[in-house]
Automatic annotation (TrEMBL):
<dbReference type="InterPro" id="IPR002401">
    <property type="entry name" value="Cyt_P450_E_grp-I"/>
</dbReference>
<feature type="compositionally biased region" description="Low complexity">
    <location>
        <begin position="343"/>
        <end position="354"/>
    </location>
</feature>
<dbReference type="GO" id="GO:0004497">
    <property type="term" value="F:monooxygenase activity"/>
</dbReference>
<feature type="binding site" description="axial binding residue">
    <location>
        <position position="554"/>
    </location>
    <ligand>
        <name>heme</name>
    </ligand>
</feature>
<feature type="region of interest" description="Disordered">
    <location>
        <begin position="36"/>
        <end position="64"/>
    </location>
</feature>
<feature type="region of interest" description="Disordered">
    <location>
        <begin position="343"/>
        <end position="368"/>
    </location>
</feature>
<dbReference type="InterPro" id="IPR050121">
    <property type="entry name" value="Cytochrome_P450_monoxygenase"/>
</dbReference>
<keyword id="KW-0560">Oxidoreductase</keyword>
<dbReference type="GO" id="GO:0016705">
    <property type="term" value="F:oxidoreductase activity, acting on paired donors, with incorporation or reduction of molecular oxygen"/>
</dbReference>
<keyword id="KW-0503">Monooxygenase</keyword>
<dbReference type="Pfam" id="PF00067">
    <property type="entry name" value="p450"/>
</dbReference>
<feature type="compositionally biased region" description="Pro residues">
    <location>
        <begin position="44"/>
        <end position="61"/>
    </location>
</feature>
<dbReference type="GO" id="GO:0020037">
    <property type="term" value="F:heme binding"/>
</dbReference>
<dbReference type="GO" id="GO:0005506">
    <property type="term" value="F:iron ion binding"/>
</dbReference>
<keyword id="KW-0349">Heme</keyword>
<keyword id="KW-0408">Iron</keyword>
<keyword id="KW-0479">Metal-binding</keyword>
């Protein structure tokens, strides 16, 4: 889950989405959210002496600052990102806006200056991310900084590398097969499906299976399963206070605090049960008391009891926490067996930015892996298991920080489905709006897969047009809309004072820059990624950043792309889709950009696969694939 604020409109054909009063109000509140992002729930810090000039500010009213003009724009013309784009065109790549009671927000749209903030200066994330703590976990890598963050990335990077994900492809495929079955039934019954809803459930299955080695049939259980119920309840509760910034203080009222704690405990206990089970399967003993204290005694002890016979014992002591590579609360788990000393080589996993600049190509998030890490990858069934092994290897006495592991599970559960489900939902919407793109894509899928119903990693890598379609979908509709950093006291950027300001970057604004992308920047046109020497080949890195850039880029970029490719290829091989909604899709900005109407689609089986493949091969040859 990423903290992103603002209403977004659909960029299809440049129409301005009609806005309801409610969504406008939400938009305004989110304007406050952006502006307040730096200060969390405390009062705005006192401005320090300016270091540098002040950036231009769009016209504002005394006392109301920009809230009046923003309200008017959002009510009549579009969303916050469109407004930011308009202001960028009028005022250049640095400008500032403000709403009463919140620190100034400086929008940075210059690619080189963004690189400075993200890679060179590495400004910290906004303290407001901490509002997501109940959902993401107190030690989530989304919010940690410095050494703690680096250690967390080092432990989890290998699991998100293409080397490991290649071996995990069967997991992606088996979850997608459930989706295909569901679509078969819909085609049979001529039912209209809410495609976005189905992709949410499928991506949840994938993160549980590939991430934590746990098979949960979300597509059958729907939204009634206990894990989903716990997550959704807590997510909605926390998002309310995030959305309603003027009422944010209410989250600290005693009854809200206890409600948050209760809901958080429900989610924690569900995921802790999975964690404890996995650790026991690995022969690792669990300190029941510590685990219960972290997640709720009942569920943890029952999960431990259900795994009786695996040698659970209380063996860790709080002193081991001091030796753990992850500073935090108590180390709650210790190895039943000593870690293989032969594998005690230095970790070479990297969390630097350079290895992840292009998640669409061969480079990846994992960096160089040592031989020992490579072996662990082969021996590990899922990302969690691999990270546990790496943590054990790095830890002096094999102790593990249970809270750190639980936090990353919560983080991946949240971040690992919402964003990718959005990407899939929006891509299907674009395909329905551009039948020629859909035909060319289906032709490529048929030509590459032939009669095979399970794509191999190699086959997915060969689908160049599919890659271009996903790149383009992420360009015109980046699921994470706005990224916020905090300018430290006394700081400046490109000669502008950034002291105690929110530094806001909008991937959408970067992606719509006609100077970079050409006059058709707003159009959905995957071909731009395949044109030799075309503008898309010369884009500066920070002009395309759906997964952000630099060291704090998305750890799950490769994961998300492999997942999206698998799901799209398997769906398009078997089915044709037609948009069944009454009106065009619109953006509903929650933490990410959701398709408001859920992408309702009519599903039909494709014609005879063999005949389709032959026709597709001919079409593909004609299209120059
Ligand atoms: C299409 C899918 C996705 C998109 C567009 C996306 C986008 C992003 C962006 C823009 C950031 C930077 C946020 C910031 O700086 O404030 C980010 C960070 C992150 N993402 Fe993703 N994400 C996606 C999928 C995933 C998946 C599948 C996972 C995990 C299973 C994941 C886990 C994370 C984590 C843990 C971070 C924080 C990394 C750090 O701070 O070191 N994301 N993502």
């Amino acid at each position: 889950m990423q903290l992103a604020y603002g209403q977004q409109g659909c960029c299809m054909g440049g129409h301005a989405a009609p806005r309801s009063h409610r969504s406008t109000v939400r938009g305004i509140l989110r304007v406050h959210a952006v502006a307040g992002a730096a200060s969390g729930s405390t009062s705005p810090p006192q401005p320090s002496r300016p270091k540098g000039k002040q950036p231009p500010r769009p016209p504002e009213l005394p006392g109301l600052m920009h809230s009046a003009s923003m309200t008017a724009y959002l009510a009549t013309q579009g969303d916050l990102e469109r407004l930011l784009l308009q202001w960028r065109q009028q005022h250049g790549p640095f400008f500032e806006f403000q709403v009463p009671g919140s620190p100034p927000v400086m929008v940075v749209a210059d690619p080189e200056a963004i690189r400075e903030v993200y890679e060179v200066l590495q400004y910290h994330k906004s303290p407001r991310y901490k509002d997501l703590l109940p959902v993401l976990g107190s030690q989530s890598m989304v919010m940690s900084e410095g050494h703690t963050w680096k250690a967390q990335r080092d432990a989890f990077n290998p699991g998100f590398s293409s080397s490991f994900l290649k071996t995990a492809l069967p997991g992606f495929i088996s979850c997608t097969e459930h989706l295909v079955e569901r679509l078969e039934a819909a085609a049979e019954q001529r039912e209209v499906v809410q495609l976005h809803h189905l992709t949410v459930l499928t991506t949840l299955e994938v993160i549980c299976k590939v991430g934590f080695g746990e098979d949960i049939d979300f597509l059958s259980a729907g939204r009634s399963g206990p894990l989903w119920t716990a997550f959704e309840g807590l997510g909605r509760h926390v998002a309310w206070f995030l959305d309603n910034v003027p009422l944010n203080w209410m989250k600290d009222l005693p009854w809200n605090v206890s409600k948050t704690q209760r809901m958080q405990q429900q989610l924690d206990s569900q995921l802790m049960a999975i964690l404890v089970k996995r650790l026991q399967e690995m022969g690792i003993s669990v300190d029941r008391q510590a685990a219960a204290a972290l997640a709720g005694a009942d569920v943890v002890s029952s999960s431990v009891a259900s795994s009786a016979g695996t040698g659970a014992s209380s063996s860790s002591s709080s002193s081991s926490a001091a030796k753990c590579p992850f500073p935090g609360v108590a180390a709650a788990v210790s190895a039943a067996t000593a870690p293989d000393t032969a594998q005690r080589t230095t970790l070479t996993t990297s969390s630097s930015s350079s290895d992840a600049e292009c998640p669409f190509g061969d480079t990846d998030t994992g960096g160089e892996a040592s031989a020992a890490t490579e072996q662990m990858m082969l021996d590990s069934k899922d990302i969690l298991m691999l990270a546990v092994k790496l943590c054990q290897k790095e830890s002096v006495d094999g102790s593990l920080d249970l809270e750190m592991l639980l936090s990353q599970m919560k983080t991946f559960f949240a971040a690992g489905h919402d964003t990718t489900a959005g990407l899939l939902g929006w891509t299907m919407w674009y395909l329905c709006q551009h039948p020629q793109v859909e035909r060319r894509l289906a032709a490529e899928v048929a030509a590459v897969l032939g009669s095979s119903s399970q794509p191999s990693y190699q086959q997915l890598s060969e689908m160049r047009y599919l890659n271009a379609v996903l790149k383009e979908s992420l360009r015109v509709r980046p699921p994470v809309g706005l990224l916020a950093r905090w300018g430290p006291e006394g700081s400046s950027l490109a000669g502008y004072d950034t002291s105690s300001k929110v530094l806001l970057v909008s991937p959408y604004v970067q992606h719509m820059d006609t100077q970079v992308w050409g006059p058709d920047a707003a159009d959905f046109r995957p071909e731009r990624w395949l044109e030799e020497g075309g503008p898309a080949q010369r884009v500066p890195p920070y002009s395309y950043m759906p997964f952000s850039r630099g060291p704090r880029n998305c750890i799950g970029a490769q994961f998300a792309l492999l997942e999206a490719k698998t799901i799209l290829a398997m769906m398009l091989q078997k089915f044709e889709f037609e948009y069944a909604g009454d009106k065009p899709e619109e953006v509903l900005m929650s933490v990410t950009a959701h398709p408001k109407f859920g992408v309702p689609l009519r599903v039909r089986r494709r014609a005879q696969p063999a005949a389709a493949a032959a026709a597709a091969a001919a079409a593909a040859a004609g299209a120059g694939l």
